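Minimal example, chain plus 2-oxoglutaric acid.
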Amino acid sequence: MGQGATSFDSIRLTPTIGAEVRGLDLSAQLDESTTDSLYDALLEHHVLVLRGGPLPPDRLEALGSTFGPLAPAHHTYPNVDGHPSVTVLDTGPGNPPDNAEWHTDLSFRADRPFLSILQPDIRPPVGGDTLFANLFAVHDALMPGLRSDLEGLSAVHDMGSFRNHTYAEGGVELMNERMAEVGSSVHPMIDHHPVTGRPFLHVNECFTSHVVGLSMPEGRRLLAYLFDLIARPQFHVRVRWEDDVVVLWDNRGTQHYAADDYLPHRRVMQRLIVTSDCREAV
Ligand SMILES: O=C(O)CCC(=O)C(=O)O
């Protein structure tokens, strides 16, 4: 805890990932040493469950801005009026959920985002939990021989199942247009956290489509094995949403999965992405 910081406790939610932050007042602007402490807790636990929400959009933006620059409006999802960086994820019978797939936000970009903040706006009576996986722990659990093979490999990340939206909206023309616009990127399959240096497995079933240098069938088999490993519950924390819960996660070394078990109810979430880490170079 930094000098002058508001004190809070971080209570582990599992041995591997996630902590609940207790004693933090989110109704006021957090001072710098408190956000430094929150940042340290984030690096340690990867996912932080805060209480004191829901935050109005300007407070959400103010909280995000203490960690770095905010992402502009999303290419597919709508945003809160007047707040382009507050993305609305609105799902229900007319717009079925599309994020019940393990993914790291926007991993198809060369500079994948640092941090995401999520809070509920409308909750189903039950269900709609979000699960997070610790990819550092998955890396450490790899068989040593496989780990050393993966150290020399890279994989292609592209729009993945975002194709579904664009195809439904404008057929193959719009899909190809967006694919060209958004592009794809190649990331090492074993990547390193830019601050802690810790290695993590960097593939996800939503956006990772191809292993560079392998045939499609070979690459698919390898990826299927890795996706299966990532899906094991010992690497996860499961967040049950309540009205006052606000979650922060570090995208560098985690993935998440939004359980799509709440239809015919509606679920509306607000999400903010912080593109880069203003403390990274410090
Ligand atoms: O709605 C959720 O629980 C998760 C949202 C999500 O998948 C995302 O922000 O990429």
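The pocket of 2-oxoglutaric acid is lined by residues 89, 99, 105, 116, 118, 130, 256, 258, 269, 271 (CB under 6 Å). The chain has a mean pLDDT of 93.
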